[in-house]
Amino acid sequence: MPEEKENDLISKRKKEDSVIRKVAFYSLVVNTFLVIVKLYLAWISGSLALEADAINSLIDIFASLALIAGIWLSGLKSNKFPYGLYKIENFVSILIAFLVFLTAWEILINAIYEDSTVLGFSGWVLPAVAGLASVPYLLGTYEVKIGKKYNSPGLIADGKQHKVDVLSTLVVFFALFAQYFGVPVDSIGAIIVAGFIAYSGWEILKDSMKTLLDASIDYKTRDLIKSAINSDPVVICTKELNARNSGRYIFVEAVVNMKKTDLSKAHLASERIESKIRDLVPNVERVVIHYEPKERSFIRYAVPLENRDGDISPHFGEAPYFAILDFNFRDAKLLRKEILQNPAAGLDKQKGMRSAEFLLKYKPDLVFSKQKLTGKSAEYVFESAGVLLKITDADNTSELIEKIEAEMESRKEENS
């Protein structure tokens, strides 16, 4: 990767880490506030369910501290860990999950074995508890949004846990509401809260274990990476693709079959592929492309056309159509002919360059033209992709096909 791009990437990462740490600190402050308020309300109401909810928020404080520490540690660099310490965030997420399980267990035991007789309490406790439900929801939604934006598993885990806290607080509210009217369901409410908490812990644990076990990334992202590789003009196919998460970053390794070319052009192709992958997929830490030369069984030509009848255009960028011609190496005969409409023909500017970029999607080996492209933008586009250019004096595709077949047949005889 060019040094300038690498510096930009480092600067971007630092900004992202700063945002994630800031959101984690907000979580810590909000959790501290919730614990104080819930413990006070549990004390004056005597509600076991509300006490359980307060303990849940207390665990959230430790989770927030672990999250902040994990984010800081994952950003450290060490020669002993060339792939980075990014998985520390996943370890932190697992720690959060086990703390969540512990909380659920404690609440369950208390609900089953302890006396949960609720003292008489003032009616204002109910709206106070109802008001608290919105706080973890807003915080959790914000954390998940930022976590997904910057691909932070720790922040997403913390946010999901807070969103589940909303359900537990609502259960507490309805338990208190029933208790206020003399229906003793406080222990049942505490057990339901424990169930919500345990489910939240399982979701966090499951996602983090996938990453620690080097599970592949989701199919959508994998397909996006594969399409970026296959779209390069010198790539014949992707032979093997491995992509995995490490913390909030993605590592990509691919074995690619390319057209036979020199090492410098193959290296340029790998740089193009890496750049395109980074443009399409956020948080890609490393891309390794292993290229293997491979011969195709056919050769592909492209030529600008004046019309669909096959008359060759005297212009390149202004040509309304292009013909794609595939010839078999073995018998030197036309395999396939396809006529494409040129989407760049109607542009006011950069017709040549856009036409060349359009043709590269079809991966021609050689482009014929009546117009000299020397020094023009189209020439640079084709040259960088390893595509040859050749002037033709043929008037139509039928004449051009005859000339190509005759030339290929002549080469066969010379080689035999």
From TrEMBL:
* Alphabetized InterPro entries for the sequence: Cation_efflux, Cation_efflux_CTD, Cation_efflux_CTD_sf, Cation_efflux_TM, Cation_efflux_TMD_sf, CDF_Transporter, Di-Nase_FeMo-co_biosynth, DiNase_FeMo-co_biosyn_sf
Q: Which UniProt keywords apply?
A: Membrane, Transmembrane, Transmembrane helix, Transport
- Has keyword Mitochondrion? no
The protein's matches in Pfam families, at most eight in alphabetical order, are given as: Cation_efflux, Nitro_FeMo-Co, ZT_dimer
What is one process in the GO biological process aspect for this record?
A: intracellular zinc ion homeostasis
Which residues does the UniProt record annotate as the domain Dinitrogenase iron-molybdenum cofactor biosynthesis?
309-404
Q: Name one GO cellular component term.
A: plasma membrane
Q: Spell out the SUPFAM superfamilies in the cross-references.
A: Cation efflux protein cytoplasmic domain-like, Cation efflux protein transmembrane domain-like, Nitrogenase accessory factor-like
Limits of the Cation efflux protein cytoplasmic domain: 220-293
Q: Tell me what topology the record assigns in the membrane.
A: Multi-pass membrane protein
Start and end residues of each Cation efflux protein transmembrane domain = 25-213
PANTHER family, per the entry: MITOCHONDRIAL METAL TRANSPORTER 1-RELATED (PTHR43840:SF15)
Protein name listed in UniProt: Cation diffusion facilitator family transporter
